[in-house]
Amino acid sequence: xxxxxxxxxxxxxxxxxxxxxxxxxxxxxxxxxxxxxxxxxxxxxxxxxxxxxxxxxxxxxxxxxxxxxxxxxxxxxxxxxxxxxxxxxxxxxxxxxxxxxxxxxxxxxxxxxxxxxxxxxxxxxxxxxxxxxxxxxxxxxxxxxxxxxxxxxxxxxxxxxxxxxxxxxxxxxxxxxxxxxxxxxxxxxxxxxxxxxxxxxxxxxxxxxxxxxxxxxxxxxxxxxxxxxxxxxxxxxxxxxxxxxxxxxxxxxxxxxxxxxxxxxxxxxxxxxxxxxxxxxxxxxxxxxxxxxxxxxxxxxxxxxxxxxx
Length: 310
Ligand code: NAP
What we know:
This protein has helices at 11-22, 57-70, 132-135, 151-160, 180-188, 282-309; strands at residues 2-7, 28-30, 44-45, 55-56, 74-76, 80-84, 90-94, 98-106, 110-112, 128-129, 143-147, 166-170, 192-195, 198-205, 209-216, 222-226, 229-232, 236-238, 268-270. It folds into two domains: 2-112 and 236-309, FAD/NAD(P)-binding domain, CATH 3.50.50.60; 128-232, FAD/NAD(P)-binding domain. It has 310 residues and is an alpha/beta fold. The two termini are 20 Å apart. Helix 1 (11-22) packs parallel to helix 2 (57-70), helix 1 (11-22) runs parallel beside helix 6 (282-309) and helix 4 runs parallel beside helix 5 (180-188). It has six helices and 19 strands. 25% of the residues lie in helices and 27% in strands. NADP nicotinamide-adenine-dinucleotide phosphate (NAP) binds next to helix 4.
């Protein structure tokens, strides 16, 4: 019987592991086949406090992992395939094993949606990004494209005007999904242009992005478009497939939590982007991981105290 199992190994999961390990809970982290979360896909991280010169995303996650292991967290690079939260103990399964736990911290994160177009993967971190907060500053005085028509796209476009000499929003329809106020703000901005009814069908460039191949969805015509950076803002998908039917999710698939750590299942806590539609930052995920571990510890204490009394 494990006292705490942490599912996921981004900033939320590994911070939870540091705190749980230092509380002598001997946590088991089921880290996923590819540990480290979304930061493993970024280049330089300049907004994580404590690294004034910046740090590469994967290097930061190695440090998170080393810190958790230093205090005794056991980290297995395996994917969780299913859970059963219908009774006690809580059950977590991988393809080879079944684990029983008194508490579980879910920190499986969210994945930015990508366009799935040629050259997009190759030029990730070299012009192509899904995070303006992380990568915008690399494109000072450049021509930046944002794809999407929702609030995220407007927010990213407005933020990117601080860096780019011009920001072009490319949207697949002729009207925006974004809230009126965000849409109006973006449309009024002198640095922001819109291209409607259009989707990128390829990223151009070898070492770095140099442009996009665009397609007009009305007449099917295609043309090349010069730009230095592409920020894709077409939404995130929370990684909650394995929890469906086991725990309350909201209409968009995020795990519901009234207070940011507890869920509708006793003993199951949540931290990070899997519960955060709003901030989606490494530092906020790390903070949430800390809170979830402290709440799991309190829950265990209460369980163990009532076991002594009975
Ligand atoms: P979203 O509202 O789902 O918008 C996604 C946008 O991407 C839509 O315009 C959609 O086009 C487009 N899109 C989706 N798949 C695409 C594809 N394959 N190719 C091209 N375009 C594609 O997602 P979001 O903007 O990330 O917002 C998510 C939630 O967070 C929303 O509730 C939003 O209000 C909220 N949010 C709020 C704020 C804020 O208030 N400050 C900031 C960010 C997000 P269609 O319009 O044609 O579907």
